[in-house]
Design a protein that fits this description.
This protein folds into two domains: about 1-200; about 210-270. A hairpin with a 2-residue loop joins strand 3 and strand 4 (about 215-220). About 65% of the residues lie in helices and about 10% in strands. It has a four-stranded antiparallel beta sheet, with helices on one face. The chain is an alpha+beta fold and about 270 residues long. It contains seven helices and six strands; from the N terminus they run H-E-E-H-H-H-H-H-E-E-H-E-E.
Length: about 270
């Protein structure tokens, strides 16, 4: 009888340990998830060891397609999105911090706030996807919305029955979270405006064609560029190569666009004029 009780106690401890491991993994996932999203917005594209997505250009193209060409409109929208992501990151990371310290009541409160902010973020993104007609992004954000909800349900189900569920965020915690979030939002906002100052010209400026072989030229098209950039690039190429005639133009398939997550690469095939 005593051996059965001992085995039962061991099984309970193992089960509780596994539950804590899963809960910690959930907190770790969302903390890293939002951290990478923030870093992606700060970097704004591809660099060494990072092939992100140019969110600056993406937002500006979205609003330009709706007739709002002013970059300030896209910048404000991106800042709002970044602010939601930053606050979600702060609360998810705060929940992970308290979880590692063994403060389960604080963990639950911080994670709940992180869940609410995450749901709000993906809801806002889904509205934008509907507005701009991006069905692929809509599917992605909808899946993440349900993943967020499932994370909270699983986290709650794995709580111990003897855990204290009372209490919430205290004033010092709220102030600390708000200050940290404001600092991060300010940093991301500076990066957004720096991008406009340094790279917004890509929306209209022509691109130099790079010779890669005999009568073969490569053009790395920026994600921010549209039809105006393409037309100016072709006009510039014709002007710079008066002895050549463009035979045809072809693009590179998606799998071959290494280190160019968002960019279009196309080649210009020429021949000498008779």
């Amino acid at each position: 009888m005593k051996q059965k009780c001992t085995m039962g106690a061991i099984e309970k401890r193992v089960s509780a340990s596994n539950n804590q491991l899963i809960r910690g993994a959930i907190l770790m996932y969302w903390s890293i998830f939002w951290l990478f999203n923030i870093v992606d917005k700060v970097i704004g594209g591809s660099m060494f060891l990072w092939v992100g997505r140019d969110r600056f250009a993406q937002f500006q193209k979205y609003f330009a397609s709706a007739g709002l060409d002013a970059p300030i409109v896209a910048d404000v929208a991106l800042m709002v999105a970044a602010a939601l992501e930053v606050f979600a990151f702060v609360f998810m990371t705060g929940a992970l911090f308290f979880f590692l310290k063994g403060c389960l009541k604080e963990t639950r409160s911080w994670f709940f706030m992180g869940i609410l902010l995450t749901l709000a973020t993906f809801t806002l993104f889904s509205w934008g996807d509907h507005l701009f007609g991006d069905r692929f992004e809509l599917l992605e954000h909808t899946l993440f919305w349900f993943m967020t909800l499932a994370s909270w349900v699983i986290f709650k189900r794995l709580e111990g029955v003897d855990q204290d569920h009372s209490g919430g965020l205290n004033r010092p915690q709220v102030i600390a979270a708000a200050l940290l979030a404001c600092v991060l939002v300010g940093s991301v906002s500076l990066s957004i405006f720096d991008y406009n100052k340094d790279y917004f010209y890509r929306r209209t400026a022509p691109i130099a064609a790079e010779p890669v072989g005999e009568d073969l030229f490569k053009v790395s098209f920026p994600f921010l560029g549209g039809s105006t950039v393409f037309e100016k690039t072709i006009a510039q190429f014709v002007e710079e190569h008066p002895t050549k005639r463009i035979d045809h133009i072809y693009t590179v398939p998606n799998p071959l666009r290494l280190k160019k997550a968002d960019a279009l690469i196309f080649y210009i095939i020429t021949e000498e004029k008779p």
